[in-house]
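Reopening this ticket.

The earlier resolution said the output was attached, but the attachment link was broken on my side. Pasting everything inline this time so it's all in one place.
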Amino acid sequence: MNKLIQLTLGLLLLAVGTTHAAGTPAVPAVQQTIEVTAQQLEALQQQGQAIFSGEVIAKQGEITLYCDKLVIYSLVGQQKVDRLEAFGKVRVVQLDRTATADKVIYRQQQGTLRLIGNAQLHQGQNRVAGEEITLFLEENRSLVKGGDGGRVKAVLFPEPQKVPQ
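Inline output:
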């Protein structure tokens, strides 16, 4: 169970990770520049939406998001982001941590990251899977649901024992 908690907490960094170089203080990812590339960008200013589509890659620090479509919802009349929704072969990568799902919804104000549809979290060989995984970022907890009769699956490998020399 401890390994599951470590995996889940480690994967929380996918959403709120920090980046640092040797000798420099860590900078929260939310304060770093986001670079998004895609085949198309549609800006709907009245609705406060930016829609990136076609082989979308979004990078912020050491976190990279890959998907078919990314919709950024801003609070109407403000320059503040309300939520991000990623669709189609969604993959979030940070170092040896990877999250995949059919759809991902990140709500910064609520501090939640929801992986919906074939949701999986990987760190090294360890894996947790379910139909939906919700990470409650500020509470350091997660909820994994199996969905319509499905079951949650966790594959955890023990850390190798260090042999005293």
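Reporter confirms the inline version is readable. The radius of gyration is 17 Å. The chain has one domain: 2-15+35-155.
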